[in-house]
């Protein structure tokens, strides 16, 4: 999958996780099947076909634009080369965070560039492509075992 599509998947996942009503917006725009296909493709064990991911993202983007949400999965300022480094000096976590070694969360499937920091939430955020109840992002850095 191309870096640009990894960014787009991350943006879509973030928006779906924050705004559950977005699924209805995508449905109303005519791309419910494409959304379900994309999430299933991302959740599969094998690497997703990059062209298929790109096509599904384009269909979802078009559906959102028809509903007044242009640019939902296509923004400037991506992270070429993968997940960016977290900000330096991030060592003190907010109250309520269970694991003091967690500096943030990343995609549990390694399908996107989404990074959520403790400044955004004190609990592991949801990943739109991973079914519940385990549908959470993974801690960063990963626990040494």
Blueprint of the fold:
Layout: H1 3-18, H2 22-28, H3 32-43, H4 50-66, E1 104-106, E2 115-116, E3 138-140
Antiparallel strand pairs: 1-2, 1-3
Helix pairs in contact: 3-4
SSE-based structural type: mainly alpha
- What spatial form do the alpha-carbon principal axes imply? globular
Order of helices and strands: HHHHEEE
Estimate percent helicity: 25-40%
Poorly predicted runs are: 76-98
Computed over alpha carbons, the radius of gyration is: 15 Å
Instruction: Tell me the span between the first and last alpha carbons.
Output: 29 Å
Strand content: 5-15%
Strand order of the largest sheet: 2-1-3
Question: What's the count of strands?
Answer: 3
* Average pLDDT number: 78
Query: Biggest sheet, open or closed, and with what strands and sense?
Result: 3 strands, antiparallel
In oligomeric terms, what are we looking at? single chain
Number of helices: 4
């Amino acid at each position: 999958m191309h870096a640009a599509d990894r960014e787009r998947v991350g943006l879509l996942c973030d928006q779906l996780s924050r705004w559950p009503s977005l699924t209805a917006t995508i449905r109303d725009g005519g791309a419910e099947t494409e959304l379900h296909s994309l999430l299933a493709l991302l959740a599969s064990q094998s690497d997703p076909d990059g062209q298929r991911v790109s096509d599904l993202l384009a269909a979802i983007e078009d559906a959102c634009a028809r509903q007044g949400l242009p640019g939902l999965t296509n923004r400037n300022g991506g992270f070429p080369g993968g997940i960016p480094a977290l900000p330096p000096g991030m060592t003190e976590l907010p109250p309520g965070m269970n694991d003091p070694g967690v500096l943030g969360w990343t995609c549990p499937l390694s399908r996107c560039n989404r990074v959520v920091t403790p400044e955004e939430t004190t609990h592991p955020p949801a990943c739109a492509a991973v079914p519940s109840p385990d549908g959470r992002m993974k801690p960063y850095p990963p626990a040494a075992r």
